[in-house]
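Journal club side-thread
Mid-discussion, someone asked how the predicted structure for our own chain would compare to the paper's figures. Pasting it here so we can look after the session.
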Amino acid sequence: MITLYGTPLSGNTHKVRIALALLGLPWDERLTDAAARQSDAFRALTPMAQIPLYVEGDFSLRDSQAILVLLAARHRPGDWDGRTPEERGEVALWLSHAANEIANGPATLRLARKFGLDIAEEHAAAVTARFLPVIDAHLERRDWLAGGRLTIADMAASPYLALMGDAGIDIAAWPAIHAWTRRIAALPGFPAMPGWPAEGAA
């Protein structure tokens, strides 16, 4: 059985939920709030004390992008992580954007404005302003980020962009991004989260 340590409002945890749900894999989710992450028991599982943490048998892996790479390679090789060297490069590019521009832009703004954390809002706003036009223009010409189909690039990049409203950003001002996040939320089996409901849900 897969155990996923995370929290309901974590966009990084939700990246992994999307993959597990679309693969039809059962998992046990363990609520791991800030206090739990500082416990000796959790630090024994991962020295970084961060979520999400994926555990399957004796194997554990931290970092949402790394977990997506694992799940793609194990369950949907080629289809989710690139069929050609060019596609694999494109997927890697968007995984990098997820860990850099998205994490340091919209995701950081969300931490400040939804959770009241003291972060460098001005820097996060500048990163966001630089990055959103790039991905919106990219998605104006295609339905998915890489390969002409859903890949782990979409799973890695989408949660914090779907949740931009929490960061004080009107997602409707970015129509291609908005359409893409709705496209993902309409996938059969998509797991809803607070702020990002399944498309068509009541």
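Post-session note: The chain has a mean pLDDT of 94.
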